[in-house]
Amino acid sequence: MNRDHLLRRHPRLFAGKALPRIDLVDDHGWLPILDRLFFALEAEFDDEALRDIEIVAAYSRNAELVIEERAQVRRMRNLCRLAEQDSARMCERCGADRAYLRRHSQLRTLCEHCAVQVVSR
Ligand SMILES: [Zn+2]
Questions:
Q1: pLDDT given for residue 121 in this prediction
Q2: How many domains does the chain have?
Q3: Domain membership flag for residue 52
Q4: What pTM was estimated for this model as a whole?
Q5: 49 alpha carbon – ligand 1 mean position (Å)
Q6: Angle at CA 2, nearest 5°, toward 120 and 25?
Q7: Cα 98 to middle of ligand 1, angstroms
Q8: What residues of the chain score a pLDDT lower than 50?
Q9: Does some domain include residue 115?
Q10: Ligand 1 centroid – CA 79 distance (Å)
Q11: In a domain, 23, yes or no
Q12: From the CA of 4, how far away is ligand 1's center (Å)?
């Protein structure tokens, strides 16, 4: 899955809005977290409620996923925070479970396999 594919999967959420800036460099491991979040929002809220939320951006900061949103409803904000927490144990490079915080040239959340790949690159 890449960014464009992800955004195309959620036409209800993004109807009539600016598309979010998704800045996850070359790593696609966290896109499934966003995909699950977007499905959860679309499942939980009707079109009128969805109009009140805007996903502004998603990016990695200090090896954690940050989701910037504008939401009037507390439940929507909570779903975004829960999605961010998922990134603590998911490899930002490949999406594998059992990932940990690792300090290479920069702080990253990586699985065993990707940690070796990144070091040897
Ligand atoms: Zn990995």
A1: 65
A2: 1
A3: yes
A4: 0.91
A5: 36
A6: 45
A7: 9
A8: none
A9: no
A10: 24
A11: yes
A12: 21
